[in-house]
Design a protein that fits this description.
Blueprint: H1 3-8, H2 16-26, H3 36-53, H4 72-82, H5 90-99, H6 105-120, H7 127-137, H8 150-162, H9 176-195, H10 200-204, H11 216-228, H12 237-246, H13 252-263, H14 268-280, H15 284-297, H16 301-312, H17 330-340, H18 347-357
Helix pairs in contact: 2-3, 4-5, 4-6, 5-7, 7-8, 11-13, 12-13, 13-15, 14-15, 15-16, 16-17, 17-18
Protein name: J domain-containing protein
Organism: Escherichia coli
Keywords: Chaperone
């Protein structure tokens, strides 16, 4: 057996794929900085094995099928992207980028768009990492030589600038299959939210086990996405509460905490806090939470709350409440018609709704601040 096969630790073969896989498997063990001699021997063994495999004396290989050995930088890049433990680590990418310092300017020009093409064709790519390579090779500044479609390149660079939906380093401890599945799930989640938010509920209705990575940016996005769809995500209730406590001046934080407590079904223990929030931060969002809570726990309060919301905005220039006739606005009538179909509405509550909508003289009410 020739020496190259010993170095590659494989039997003599004419299968170029086997040779390449053996080389890629050994490459991380021979870094050009820490073991330059070993790296050189491995590279020479790889090239010699390819020459033997492609020899005209072996009839299984035709001349037109000869493969030219891929540049060691491209092979090292493929090895990095295939590494289960390093593909999402910026430090590992920095070590790879340092290898470019050993290349001439001509080599860099030849490698620039080949490396970009490999990155673009990688399914699970950390933009936090690839941006380091993009800056080193100046993908944004250098002129595209035509090797890559201009629109695809522009889209790729935009995605890099936008960043990943969460920090992929947070899932490196998981099996690779779980890592990939988690990335796929959240990338699709973000894509649906951005392009077709009306599909979100259907997407989340799929029964599957999903990891929630420990990433604050993702947690806040999930609270926003789930709350917008009036869906519960109890796993993030503790985070929502801590967010409100650590950022008391952030008006989003209390909304998402109360929204999730409502959608998770919290009952009487929430009412006092929710009312305080509704008075302190009057908005259509706060109105929706109060209405949702009433639908779940106090249906008979629902029509009264609907009319209170309608009356709240009827004020004069001095901020004093005006005379209010219940049920005049289209939104109020919509809500009242909607609640009539609720089986939990009592006979008394139903009578009130029907009186406002259909029968007799509507009660004329002037709400004061104390009444509210």
């Amino acid at each position: 057996m020739k020496n190259c096969w010993k170095i590659l630790d494989i039997e003599e073969t004419t299968d170029v794929d086997i040779i390449r896989r053996a080389y890629l498997a050994l490459l991380p063990s021979f870094h050009p900085e820490t073991d330059p001699q070993g790296f050189k021997q491995l590279r020479q063994a790889y090239e010699e094995a390819l020459r033997i495999a492609q020899s005209p004396a072996k009839s299984v290989w035709q001349p037109e099928e000869y493969e030219v050995a891929e540049h060691e930088i491209l092979l090292a890049f493929r090895a990095l992207l295939a590494s289960d433990s390093e593909r999402f680590l910026p430090s590992a990418w920095q070590r790879f980028i340092q290898q470019l310092n050993y290349c001439s300017m001509e080599e860099i020009d030849e490698l620039r768009w080949s490396l970009c093409t490999i990155a673009m064709n990688t399914a699970h790519l950390s933009f936090e990492c690839v941006v380091l390579l993009a800056e080193r090779l100046r993908w944004l500044q250098e002129e595209n030589t035509g090797e890559i479609d201009e629109e695809e390149l522009e889209s790729f660079l935009y995605a890099i600038a936008k960043g990943n939906v969460f920090n992929f380093q947070t899932i490196l401890h998981l099996p690779v299959a779980v890592q990939n599945d988690t990335i796929d799930f959240y990338q699709m989640f973000a894509r649906i939210w951005s392009s077709h938010p009306e599909w979100l509920t259907l997407y989340l209705a799929q029964h599957r086990a999903v990891i929630i990575p420990d990433d604050a940016k993702l947690h806040r996005n999930l609270l926003r996405w789930y709350s917008a769809g009036r869906l519960d995500i109890p796993e993030l209730l503790d985070y929502a509460q801590s967010w409100r406590e650590t950022e008391p001046d952030n008006e989003d934080a209390p909304y998402y905490e109360y929204a999730q407590r409502v959608y998770c079904g919290e009952g009487e223990s929430l009412l006092a806090e929710l009312c305080d929030y509704w008075r302190e931060y009057p908005s259509t969002q706060a109105d929706a939470l109060m209405l949702q809570w009433c639908r779940q726990h106090r249906v008979d309060y629902y029509p009264l709350l609907v009319m209170m919301i309608e009356a709240r905005d009827l004020v004069n220039d001095q901020g004093k409440p005006l005379l209010y006739v219940p049920g005049d606005s289209a939104r109020t009538r919509f809500h009242l018609y909607e609640i009539l179909s609720d089986e939990k509405l009592s006979a008394l509550g139903r009578s009130l709704v029907e009186m406002v909508l259909h029968k007799g003289r509507k009660p004329r009410i002037s709400l004061t601040r104390d009444t509210e």
